[in-house]
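Appendix B, record 7
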Amino acid sequence: MATGLALALGVCLIAWAVCLRLLVGTWLHPAAFFALWWCFAGILPLILAPREPVAPNAMLWVIAASIAVSMGAIAGNFGFKTRVNPNPAPATDRELFVFGMIVVVSTVFGVASNVAFVAGSNVAFADLFDIQTLIITSNQFYAQRFGDLPPPPPRLSQALLPFVYLAPLAGGILFVLRRERRWKLVALLTFIPALGVTILQTTKAAVLFAMSLWLSAYFATRLRQGKLAVFTKTHVLAAGGLGLFVLALFFATSFARLASTDAALLNIVVAKLVSSAFGHMSVFSQWLTDYWNQPFSPSLGTATFAGPLELLGYSRRIPGVFEQVIDLVLGEMSNIYTGFRPLIQDFTIPGALTILAMLGFVGGAGFRMVAAGKWSGIALLLFAYLTIMWTPITWLWFYNSLTATVVAIIAVVFAIRVWRGRFWISRYTGATVGGA
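Structure tokens (predicted):
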């Protein structure tokens, strides 16, 4: 009954998303994008996993969060209408060279991170080419990661980890900027390092990180070129093919976590995949219900900023971020509380809505700048897109490697912007800027 009411409230979410799309003119606007994303993330679990209880409070929160983000994004955009630059400046040879080099170097270093992980874990490289041995090895890594005293990852592998994610982020940009097929292939090959992490360590998050980074950069760069369409025929077909590939990959990693290829375990694997893909609404709903009954005690950033705090030595993160797990009807357990729990737990419900409105404002400002053809807005828009994409799972900025990746691309965009400006000043005024 409760799930049915939550599903009925989902109609309001869909109506809000469609209304925002009509007002702002494109799904790429953060005001509409957040609502659209949660139409899938919030409603599909109620349809595909109907036995998992979801109280109306969870859907009401999603609607409130969508309104907060939308209002912030509209304010950041200075209204509903956006001025799109019809003739954006084309990428210069310098920009193409820099992004091309970043993609190639990052992909190589990302692969090197996987190689360093294997070497530092005392695994014979020959074992990686035997399926059965690879499954057993991956299972051992998985068990170690969630053990009481997980061994620290090899230092060189960890140091190179940001390149695993910098590669797809730069790849999404390069795919739009370059028209040559060979460069588009190079931009797609940036997924290889993340695939290596997923295969070796059965970490689904690595591929999901890479996909969200690549897609965020891809759509942001398309917007800068004045392209607002999302649901094109090419995009729909590509999404279908990518979805099938990712589904097959996740089936394989789930079997690896069980250290088996026995088809008799298919039901168990399906239950695990369904719970991991669609259990978040039930988990968040149950936690939110308990939250109302708890004494008022906001944790003031210890959850939201768990990554930086660990880096500074003030705390220690655990795999999955939260120790508390929720039992699901399917027989699995989950601690996927969405990105909303850290915000509410740290800053209360009004504070969480305020932060989401600020997220929308940043995204709206970035959208306005990028649509006008300004590279400088890419960083803001990427921040908004990435955060939104990960809200059904967790708060993205737990992860220091991803934070470092985004900071790196911000530095690159800023450097290119300055370089490009100096180039145009020199070319059109005849002025000599800098050295020879």
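Remarks on this record: Residues 300 and 346 are 4 Å apart (CA to CA). The longest strand covers residues 326-327.
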